[in-house]
């Protein structure tokens, strides 16, 4: 049975001085995961398979990963008292998302915990402007970008970049949240205000006229060794990934360029564990790195069925100091289709029986309690002799499942 601990501010002060320990006496290091969503859930599944216990820290007891954890802590992951409790239960701590404040992670490190990725790396990558600076300084090609902290900087950026350009929040943006496309001078004020300009730091980025969006996952071990997954094509709609096609239908040189840039980014960051690398293939054949995610990534969910070792198992291996697994495809092609909420309400699903009757499809339901339009609630993966064949199966299966009140 999973035990839930709700940690409060009256956590004993001496707790912070205790060294981390495994949650059980089996001798294997315990993995702590900050965040309890679907990424933590799938990482926990892979870690438990290796015989390691898992501690999950999340703000609610009904998080998707909580029921899989050896021990689930409920509390604010930026609260020192909660982090102190986590430090006593986990030998190695990793992250499901990049929204945990780097200063909080530094506090956890001072308590004696091994945190991977560490606070120094997270401080560089969770601010997307600083992330772009790091990539540029490492010689990794990115779109032109400029600060837009004030109206004067915004107007200067518009003059330099031209229209359209993309105005972005430096922190806490995902799935299109925190981004605005600015198409003309008269849109500047509304875009700046809508993103919290003046109170929330922003930056501006040149518009990229790309032909296709590509991604890969690079895994870097504690000793510095790397493994790279196949380059995939990601299909976006309304800033949310809908389909992932593996391998991407690009020439070998473009794929090698993405792999090389992803590895260079991981080394420049000093990453340990999975690093999701999103890229643009430009119309002239060049590649720009768009964004980094210092964790397991939606573009790599297909690896559970399609690769020799999934991104989730390889992330656990990397942060626990174990040998990295092979990343090659076990079939010629694979396609993943995200299952998104259609309406707001309880995340009740309908059509699962019909979906499971589709031969060759694998269904993953994340166990979230609430549906919302565009919210990721599951995914379907299918393997095939070709990408088209795999996509036909995955799409057919996914079309049977509905979430929300409309289900």
How are the SSEs ordered, and which strands pair?
Blueprint: E1 3-6, E2 31-34, H1 38-49, E3 54-58, E4 71-74, H2 80-89, E5 92-95, H3 102-110, E6 114-115, H4 119-125, H5 128-137, E7 145-147, H6 151-161, E8 165-169, E9 179-182, H7 188-194, E10 202-206, E11 210-220, E12 226-228, E13 232-237, E14 240-246, H8 252-269, E15 273-282, E16 287-293, H9 303-306, H10 311-320, E17 333-340, E18 345-346, E19 349-350, H11 352-356, E20 361-365, E21 370-371, E22 376-384, H12 387-399, E23 402-403
Parallel strand pairs: 1-4, 2-3, 2-5, 3-4, 5-6
Antiparallel strand pairs: 7-10, 8-9, 8-10, 11-12, 11-13, 11-15, 13-14, 14-17, 15-16, 17-22, 18-21, 19-23, 20-22
Helix pairs in contact: 1-10, 2-3, 3-4
Look at the structure and give the mean pLDDT: 90
The helix content is 25-40%
Alpha-carbon distance between the two ends: 31 Å
C-alpha-based Rg, rounded: 21 Å
Number of helices: 12
Shape: globular
Largest beta-sheet details: 9 strands, antiparallel
> How much beta, percentage-wise?
25-35%
Number of strands: 23
Q: How would you classify the helix and strand content by structural class?
A: alpha+beta
Low-confidence stretches: 1-25
Walk me through this protein's architecture.
Strands 11, 12, 13, 14, 15, 16, 17, 20 and 22 form a nine-stranded antiparallel β-sheet that branches. A six-stranded parallel β-sheet has the order 1-4-3-2-5-6, with helices on both faces. A four-stranded antiparallel β-sheet has the order 7-10-8-9, sandwiched between helices. Helix 1 links the parallel strand 2 and strand 3. The chain is an alpha+beta fold and 407 residues long. It contains twelve helices and 23 strands. The protein is 29% helix and 28% strand. The chain starts with a strand and ends with a strand. The N terminus is likely disordered.
């Amino acid at each position: 049975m999973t035990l839930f601990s709700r940690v409060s501010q009256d956590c004993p002060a001496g707790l912070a001085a205790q060294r981390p320990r495994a949650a059980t006496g089996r001798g294997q290091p315990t993995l702590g995961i900050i965040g309890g969503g679907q990424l933590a859930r799938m990482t926990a599944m892979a870690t438990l398979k290796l015989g390691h216990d898992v501690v999950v820290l999340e703000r609610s007891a009904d998080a998707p990963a909580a029921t899989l954890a050896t021990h689930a802590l409920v509390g604010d992951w930026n609260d020192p008292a909660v982090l102190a409790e986590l430090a006593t239960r986990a030998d190695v701590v990793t992250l499901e998302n990049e929204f945990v404040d780097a200063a909080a992670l530094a506090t956890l490190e001072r308590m004696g915990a091994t945190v991977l990725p560490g606070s120094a790396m997270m401080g560089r990558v969770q601010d997307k402007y600083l992330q772009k600076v790091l990539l540029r300084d490492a010689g990794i090609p990115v779109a032109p970008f400029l600060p837009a902290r004030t109206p004067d900087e915004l107007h200067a950026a518009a003059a330099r970049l031209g229209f359209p350009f993309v105005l972005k929040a430096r922190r806490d943006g995902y799935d299109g949240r925190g981004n605005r496309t600015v198409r003309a001078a008269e849109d500047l004020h509304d875009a700046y205000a809508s993103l919290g300009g003046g109170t929330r730091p922003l930056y501006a980025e040149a518009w990229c006229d790309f032909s296709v969006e590509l991604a890969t996952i690079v895994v870097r071990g504690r000793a510095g060794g790397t493994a790279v997954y196949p380059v995939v094509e990601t299909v976006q709609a309304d800033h949310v990934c809908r389909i992932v096609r593996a391998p991407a239908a690009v020439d070998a040189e473009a794929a090698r360029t993405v792999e090389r840039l992803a590895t260079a980014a991981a080394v420049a960051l000093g990453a340990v564990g999975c690093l999701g690398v999103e890229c643009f293939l430009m119309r002239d054949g060049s590649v720009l790195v768009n964004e980094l995610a210092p964790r397991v990534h939606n573009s790599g969910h297909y690896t559970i069925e399609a690769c020799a070792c999934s991104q989730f198992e390889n992330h656990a291996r990397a942060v626990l100091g174990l040998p990295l697994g092979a990343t090659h495809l076990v079939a010629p092609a694979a396609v993943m289709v995200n299952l998104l909420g259609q309406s707001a309400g309880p995340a009740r699903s309908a059509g699962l029986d019909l979906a499971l009757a589709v031969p060759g499809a694998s269904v993953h339901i994340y166990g979230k309690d609430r549906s919302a339009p565009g919210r990721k609630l599951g995914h379907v993966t299918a393997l095939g002799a070709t990408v088209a064949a795999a996509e036909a199966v995955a799409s057919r299966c996914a079309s049977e499942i509905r979430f929300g009140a409309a289900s």
